[in-house]
Structure formats: C-alpha cells, structure tokens
C-alpha cells in the first residue's frame, strides 16, 4: 500500500455503512480470473463488503487439490484415510477425532454434532455413496475440523495473499487454544443452515473437490427472515416461510444471490452476509473465518448489539443487583465467545504487533520471524498504518461507550489512553 492508497482507504473505511438500505442490487458475483493486485481486492471487495469468486487458478498448486482428489474429481477417501489415520500405533493413538453434524436432524437452529473417529466418518461416507447417497444414519457432514492446527506439518494449502490480513487467527493463535481455519467434507445433499459467521467475520471457502450452491443475503435482509419470536429461519427455502402468521415480513426480503461454486474456486463471503450452503456433489472444502481493519466496525457493532440483547433478556434484575453490568458481560462471553474486556485485549495485541513492526520495519519478508511478520512485510508499512488507524477509531468509539466505561478497570490489563497515544505516534511516523 502506498501513501496515496493509504489516505484513500482511510477515508473510504470511515464512510458510514448503510446496511439497512442494502438490497440485492445484482444477481451476479464478480469473478476474478487471474492474479490481481492485492489493493484492487482491498478497495473493491474488502472495504465495500461485497462478495466475489476466485477462479481455480488460485488453488492449482495446493497439495490437497492433487492429493485428496481422484482423477475423476471425486474425494480420494483411501488417500485421506492414509493421511489422517496413523497406522501401527496402539488403538488409542490410532484415532483422529473429528466433529460431525447430522444434516437430517434439527436442534434449535442448527444440526446436532458429535465427535467421531475420522475413519468411521470415511467408512460411513463410502457406504453412503455405495447405497445411492442414503443411509439410515441420515446425512452426516464433517465440519469445523481444525485440520491445519492438528496436522501443521502437512502443508496442505497456502493462504492466498488476499486473505492474509487476518486478525482473528493472528490473535487466537497467540492463545494457542483456538483458531478459525477449518476443513469441511460432506456427501452430496449435506448442507449448512442459514446463519452469519462468528463475530460477523468474513469467510473464504475453497472447494478442493465437488460443488457448492450458496444462497447469500446482504446485511439487513435477515430481519425479514425471522419468525414471529425473532428467531432466524433455519432453512430459507422451507415452505413454512410463506406462512404470514409466522414469517410476517418474508415477502419484503429480496431474492438471495445464488452462486454455484465449482471445484478449485474460492468464494469470498463478506461480513454479516447471511448464507445457506448446499453440497451439490461429494465435496471437500477449506474454510477460514477472518477479520481485519475493514470489517472491525461491523464486529464492534455486532458486540454492542449482542450486549443490548443480553441486557434486554435480564432487564428485570437490573435494579436488584449491584453487579448487573458485570453479569451482562459474563453472559455475553458465554453466548458470543468474547466480552468487551477481551475485545479490548484483542485490539491491543493487534496494535502492538503493528507498532513493533513499524519500529523495526524489516525491509523484506526473508528477514521476518514468523507468519504474522511475514504477512505484515508483504502488505507493507502503509497497510500496518491503516490497521492502526482503524484500531484507533474503534478504540475511540469504545472509550465513549457507556457500557465500556462501566467495566471494572481490572478487566483491562492496560491503560487505553496510553495505547492510543502510542498508536497515534506510530501512525505519525509513517504518513
Ligand atoms: O460449506 C458449508 O457448508 C458452510 C460454509 C460456511 O458457512 C462458511 O464458509 O462461512
Ligand atoms: Fe458461514
């Protein structure tokens, strides 16, 4: 990013979002055929929060595109078993546990999940195919498997540069307990119910083999897809949505953007776009959730909305408890996975890494210590300055937020004003 782009991007990112007026203005998705400059993607898709599809050129050199797929384009189940089940060890060590959802059963608004050995899932999948894509066990879907975290030495794929400004995984990698990089594998007919992603993050999803159909709704449209209790529809194609007594506003919703994703293609799903996804064939995909300076405001708005809904839920106890506000934070953390204190630490971690980067500013990626530094080098100092500028804006908004002001100071391990000062100085040296 050069100085001019930096200034342009900062101004673009500051513009208010008009999500509630956003309609499905186009029924087509932009298609990126070949290598394109990072900043085109940044300006055309990340900042305006618009979807796009990358051609299979972008995944052609991934090992999994060769190794996990047979010559006729089907999942290579034998090879997968070989790769993820270690032979020759005791039975106990032999098993790779994986999370598996049952698409034929509904529990609240999702599918019940179980943990099963990988080889049992592969065995099930084999039988399902042999049985003409049916099974008394229902349609099982291996999803949200942290394959990369569990098998880091496998060198399965390479994160494309377009998705490399990834604060979510950068932060959660530091705690070493979680990440948002997943593998999905499911037979034809498996599907994912209607939802938006964790913290309203972006996602990218690459088909290793198979095909997916995506139904995408721009932010705000989900309000028309709630039932009379305010619950989001489970399946936006279900006939029950025609029932005006249950889904009073369904007719106001626009048609979703319907996208077919072929083998090798990568879809970029913008922040807060609700979606429902079908595997049209036996399909394997890599899916990452990620966020950065471009959609940080959407995450912050999401957290404020989540807190407001917790507050509404337990409003009746407000005057009877001194610790009511703290309780709201605890409930929010357990429902959403994060509270205001942790959001502030997240921003601090992201800011500190960029301040150190700008202070040391290695000239080329070869001198970088780790993947985060490598990505900061590749994106350049003006991108780091953009990141800091965005952290600054959101932090300023947090500091004027009444619920944030009420936090017990011990919930923060640092003094926000000092951090803001450091950020301002670091940005000043670069712009
Ligand atoms: O592929 C699927 O079944 C769901 C993927 C998804 O929801 C996502 O990548 O955000
Ligand atoms: Fe999703």
Question: What key attributes describe this structure?
Answer:
binds fe (ii) ion; 15 helices; alpha+beta; 13 strands; binds 2-oxoglutaric acid; Jelly Rolls; four-stranded antiparallel sheet; 431 residues; 2 domains; nine-stranded mixed sheet
Write structural notes for this entry.
- Helices cover 38% and strands 16% of the residues.
- The protein is of the alpha+beta class and 431 residues long.
- The chain has 2 domains: 24-290, Cupin (Jelly Rolls), CATH 2.60.120; 296-430, no CATH class.
- β1 (30-32), α2 and β2 form a beta-alpha-beta unit.
- The structure holds 2-oxoglutaric acid and fe (ii) ion.
- Fe (ii) ion (FE2) is lined by residues 195, 197, 203, 275.
Number of strands: 13
Rg value: 23 Å
Shape: globular
How would you write the strand order of the largest sheet?
1-2-11-8-13-6-5-3-4
Q: Specify the CATH architecture of the largest domain.
A: Sandwich
Number of helices: 15
CATH topology of the largest domain: Jelly Rolls
CATH H-level superfamily of the largest domain: Cupin
Q: Work out the strand percent.
A: 15-25%
* Order of secondary-structure elements: HEHEHHHEEHEHHEEEEEEEEHHHHHHH
Low-confidence stretches: none
Instruction: State the major sheet.
Output: 9 strands, mixed
Percent of residues in helices: 25-40%
The average pLDDT value, as a whole number, equals: 92
């Amino acid at each position: 990013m050069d100085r001019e782009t930096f200034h342009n991007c900062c101004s673009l990112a500051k513009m208010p979002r008009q999500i509630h007026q956003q309609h499905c203005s186009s029924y087509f998705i932009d298609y990126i055929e070949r290598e394109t400059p990072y900043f085109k993607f940044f300006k055309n898709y990340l900042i305006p929060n618009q979807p796009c599809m990358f051609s299979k050129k972008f995944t052609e050199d991934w090992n999994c595109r060769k190794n996990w797929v047979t010559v006729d384009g089907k999942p290579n189940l034998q090879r997968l078993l070989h790769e993820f089940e270690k032979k020759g060890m005791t039975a106990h060590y032999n098993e790779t546990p994986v999370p598996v959802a049952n698409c034929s059963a509904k529990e609240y608004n999702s599918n019940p999940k179980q943990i099963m050995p990988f080889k049992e899932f592969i065995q099930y999948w084999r039988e399902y195919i042999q049985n003409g894509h049916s099974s008394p066990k229902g349609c099982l879907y291996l999803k949200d498997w942290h394959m990369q975290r569990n098998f880091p030495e496998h060198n399965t794929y390479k994160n494309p540069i377009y998705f490399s400004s990834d604060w979510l995984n950068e932060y959660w990698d530091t705690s070493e307990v979680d990440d948002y990089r997943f593998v999905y594998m499911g037979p034809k007919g498996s599907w994912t119910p209607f939802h938006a992603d964790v913290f309203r993050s972006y996602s990218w999803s690459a088909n290793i083999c198979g095909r997916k159909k995506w139904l995408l709704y721009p932010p705000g449209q989900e309000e028309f897809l709630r039932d009379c209790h305010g619950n989001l529809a489970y399946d936006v194609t279900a006939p029950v949505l025609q029932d005006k007594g249950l889904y009073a506003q369904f007719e106001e919703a626009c048609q979703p953007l319907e996208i077919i994703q072929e083998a090798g293609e990568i879809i970029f799903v913008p922040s807060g776009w609700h979606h429902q996804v079908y595997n049209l064939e036996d399909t394997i995909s890599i899916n990452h959730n990620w966020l950065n300076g471009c959609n940080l405001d959407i995450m912050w708005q999401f957290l404020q909305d989540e807190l407001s809904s917790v507050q509404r839920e337990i409003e009746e106890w407000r005057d009877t408890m001194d610790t009511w506000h703290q309780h709201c934070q605890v409930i929010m953390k357990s429902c959403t996975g994060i509270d205001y204190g942790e959001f502030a630490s997240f921003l601090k971690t992201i800011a500190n890494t960029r301040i150190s980067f700008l202070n040391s500013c290695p000239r080329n990626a070869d001198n970088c210590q780790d993947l985060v530094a490598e990505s900061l080098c590749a994106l350049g100092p003006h991108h780091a300055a953009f990141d800091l500028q965005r952290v600054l804006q959101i932090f300023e908004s947090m500091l004027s937020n009444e619920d944030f002001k009420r936090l017990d100071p011990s919930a923060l391990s640092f003094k926000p004003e000092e951090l803001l000062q450091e950020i301002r100085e670091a940005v000043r040296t670069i712009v």
